[in-house]
Specification:
mainly beta, 8-stranded antiparallel sheet, 2 helices, 15 strands, 7% helix, 46% strand
């Protein structure tokens, strides 16, 4: 499917220096779990053929190639209250124009059912656009339609990096790319407490160097 060719990998090394059908969550690198939009084999150590995907540790960070769309998220109970989730996402030039970004507010079913039934996503794409999506009760709602913004680095002939942030306050959820605010929505619309991680739609080839979760402690 997608493979980072040698020239792109050299560029990556330099840059590091400077409701679909769901599949129950499974474990990936360092205990990370994943949930695919539809079943697909996870191919490690070789090119992913059509219909397959890749999810593997690749120091520094991890590499993902989405066949079908997928959510990946770390172990733990998630985030709540006032918090931020930041992710440094390196997009390879052989990616499509579907969205990729931060997933938050993830909640599973009851009992032993670990499938995320509700989740939100703040997505950017190769064309320099962003969107805010909510999945809940088997329905997909576009809370912010795809909108172009100059802060988003577009796909190029080399690897490009976008730092994507979801910033949750008591009254609002704010969406930031590369340090620039793009949008905000009321917290009541998104219900942001829950599991967090990454969302890749179909056809994305991406390296992830950091996913950071920070909690704001002082009262406001």
């Amino acid at each position: 499917m997608f493979r980072p060719h040698r020239a792109v990998m050299r560029s990556l090394a330099l840059s590091l220096l400077v409701i679909p059908c769901v599949v129950h969550a499974q474990r990936g690198p360092n205990g990370w779990r994943h949930q695919l939009d539809k079943p697909a084999p996870n191919v490690v150590g070789k090119d992913a053929p059509a219909g397959a995907w890749q999810f593997q540790e690749m120091v520094p960070g991890m590499h993902l190639t989405s066949g079908p769309g997928v959510i990946v998220y770390p172990p733990g109970d998630g985030a709540k209250g006032r918090f931020m989730v930041d992710a440094d996402l390196l997009l390879f030039p052989n990616s499509g124009e579907n969205g990729y970004g931060v997933m938050f507010g993830g909640r599973s079913g009851t009992g032993a059912d670990t499938t995320l039934r509700t989740w939100n996503a703040f997505l950017v794409n190769a064309a320099g656009r962003f969107a805010i999506i909510r999945h809940s009760g088997g329905k997909v709602e576009q809370l912010r339609a795809w909108t172009e913004h100059e802060a988003i680095v577009r796909r190029a002939t080399d690897v490009v990096t976008n730092r994507v942030r979801v910033w949750v306050e008591r009254d609002s959820v704010r969406f930031v790319v590369n340090g620039k605010p793009l949008a905000a929505l009321p917290s009541t619309v998104l219900d942001p407490d829950g599991l967090f991680g990454l969302r890749l739609e179909e056809g994305i080839n991406m390296h992830v160097t950091n996913v950071d979760h920070s909690v704001r402690l002082l009262k406001r």
